[in-house]
User: What shape does this take?
Amino acid sequence: MLSQARVNRVIDEMKNRNLDQMLISDPVAIFWLTGKWVHPGERFYGLYISKDKAPVMFINALFQFEEEIGVEKVYFTDTDDIIPILKRYISAEKRLGVDKILPARFLLPMMESRVASGFDNGSLAIDETRSMKDAMEIEIMRESSRINDLCMEDFKKLVQPGITELEIADQMLDIYKSHGASGYSFDPIVAFGKNAADPHHMPDNTALTEGDCVLFDVGGVYQNYCSDMTRTFFYKCAPTEEQKKIYNLVRQANEEALEMVRPGIVIATLDQRARDIITDGGYGEYFTHRLGHFIGIEDHEYGDVSCTNQNLEKPGIVHSIEPGIYCPKANIGVRIEDLVLVTENGHEVLNHYSKDIEILG
Amino acid sequence: MLSQARVNRVIDEMKNRNLDQMLISDPVAIFWLTGKWVHPGERFYGLYISKDKAPVMFINALFQFEEEIGVEKVYFTDTDDIIPILKRYISAEKRLGVDKILPARFLLPMMESRVASGFDNGSLAIDETRSMKDAMEIEIMRESSRINDLCMEDFKKLVQPGITELEIADQMLDIYKSHGASGYSFDPIVAFGKNAADPHHMPDNTALTEGDCVLFDVGGVYQNYCSDMTRTFFYKCAPTEEQKKIYNLVRQANEEALEMVRPGIVIATLDQRARDIITDGGYGEYFTHRLGHFIGIEDHEYGDVSCTNQNLEKPGIVHSIEPGIYCPKANIGVRIEDLVLVTENGHEVLNHYSKDIEILG
Assistant: This one.
């Protein structure tokens, strides 16, 4: 059902950008506003919202649906010209916001037929609004991460002599489902030993060996919202002194960055703090990616936690904090990742899984 | 290396559409023109061609490459603004063709900065040119389909008592590779018995049973060009009278439509003929899709063989002819598909695999 509250928040953001009307074509954004998820492929699909008029959904008759979602549905077929249909609803004398992914094959004919007096990329009005989760979303994301904590406990039990990364990864989907998730938020990363030193490693036929580190970067989807957490364990042997130093640096970077999260702080300073800790510890060159990313319906949403993001934290934002050190010469990669919610006065870490060094097997 | 002949053909088509210059962003089209395949993801990527100037490739420095391809390479980074870079090359006083997939996030700033005097969707200049394969492409597509014929012979040998659709499908990639293909042109369809009556069925754990039909819709990629063929066999038992009637109707529709292919014929008439044969036989309602699609570097390219395509066949076009009857009540689905090349005076069928009724096992 259409969330009038979310529509109103987007319209407020549109006003800040001098837009009275917008045609949204990103299916994820339309789901967020209406609760309805359609996969239009190459076909036109759009939700029109305006400060003066009721919202309208333009949808190919192939994707017809019965339920009422509080939005007028306008159907068309593959042989219809969509432009005159749009003209009946869009105010031609005003500018129109479109979103960043609208392809030229729709935008150019809209311009030629003067569907609006001008066209702007209005995506930020949606993306920035979506980044601030409302109470219902926060409740779901808390539960999604709670499920991820439970799954991590189960994943640990799969760590058995001689098992391969793929053999573990292949069992994870069922475990997510057994805890109430509908699927993965991304293909899980399972990496043993030196493989963990490649942050893009995908699970392969590498078998577990004594002395390996075991990295799990995993997330599930619960009621359409993603979780995302990373933990790094050790197998059979205690870590070497250098490995322990690396682990503790990553943990310190994770915890100190989390501790700083509160409304009003410049997001780039989180990345800076984590990077300083790891650099001062002598491993700066091995922390090769940004500190985190925003998350919600999509695993990676608009907004990153990097040295270039000068925006301020705002209540409702959820993002990852995931420092890492990838050090092939120490035969190890360590990443420790949690999701954190910005609250009115500070923050709430959504993952509760221990970060103590743990030796499995 | 840039194919000047292909660029010239596109520029000829552009002239027919009053375009002197075009900015191409589809990575497949750029590969077809330059031999270089880049996967730019969300980043800007473009090939500029013009009737008056040398071609220029705009490419993120992340995708830098050494080899000379006969095109000036202009690199930029994630922090560069691409618009002033484009302005240095594009003639601002002329209209610019862009392609249909160019997203609003690039097109709108190009318009605002008046990179050109106007913007048109010029994709057809490329798509229609690409549909007419040149001698080199024809040679490769012939070989690609020859490989598919050889693979079909091997796939047939996998039909053993109790085997499942997935167990057969899982062996197909290695068979393609053993015959010199680099991979699939699409995930293979293997369907037994009633499953074949669903034209969108994907291989599952259904086990083979006596009396099943066995449908293989398969294709491989050879030197970047796709093959695509369907054959329907029977397992252990001869088909029933009704199944035989269905099979022979589909075969007749396939063969008569192929026979009509020649330059100058309206493409829709092929679909009409095949549909008439099946309808007159009493199974019109079970032929639920268009007769075929164009094919080349992509399995489905611009151009279809349907009742709405009033264009004429032209030498160099390659498309499928794939009538089918999907009849759950007769416990059968039959599709027979070949690729056909339009020649100067007629046609050449690229597949040579027998269409006689064959009982396996």
User: Anything to note?
Assistant: Chain A is about 30% helix and 25% strand.
